[in-house]
Each structure stands twice: as C-alpha cells, then as structure tokens.
Amino acid sequence: MIRSEPTDFGKNTYKYMKAKKMSKKELMNRTGVSIWSLTQIINSKSNPSLPTAIRIAAALDVSLDDLCGLRRVAGDKQRQAWSDIAADLLADCREIYGGLQRMNNHARALKRCARKYRLIEEDEE
Fold first, then answer.
1. Minimal CB count within 10 Å: which of 20, 45, 50, 53?
2. Quick one: which of 23, 25, 12, 19 has its CA closest to 57?
C-alpha cells in the first residue's frame, strides 16, 4: 500500500535541488527542460508531464515517489513491482523518442533524394 501525503512536486523538487546544491541551470542542463518550465514547476504554477517528471527525478537521483510525496508502506514485492513499472515506462519513453528521431532522419534522407532527382524544388519544404 502506498500513502500519499499532501505534498507538492514543485516543493519537493526545490528541496532536493537545495540538498544537492543544484541550480536551476544545472537541472536544466541535466534534463533538457527549459528554465522557464522548471520555474513554473518549482513554483507550483504547473505540473510536469510524466516524461519530464522522470527526467527531473533521474537528474536529482531520487525516485518519483519522493518527488510526488508518496510514502511507501509496502513490502519488498510491491516495491519491486512499482520499480519495474517505472523502469518499463522509462524504457517505453526512450523507445518512442528513438523512433521519432529515426523517422526524422528518414524524412531528411527522402527530402535530399527528392531534391537530387528534382522531384521537389530546392526551396520547397
């Protein structure tokens, strides 16, 4: 069983940043999240998407449970199950991101080929 305390993702992010003496700029560099977005999250003006929350947790070397204010009251099996779910989710996110990068590379290659054989003009997008 997992109990949720009425804590705030932004406050917890700030707490762990301070504990690790990490600036917003350093967190930005580690996560790829803009300073503006981090400020909105830390000030509780917005909540991050799940992939962003995962990147923030990884950069701070803490669990999502810690950032979300969840306290575990579970045995080892349930703890491992949640850990496995998070790992699977992260792997899925990485796979999707890699697929998008490959699709983008294929689109560029097709465009170069089309230009080479003059199927499209140089300035056509």
1. 45
2. 12
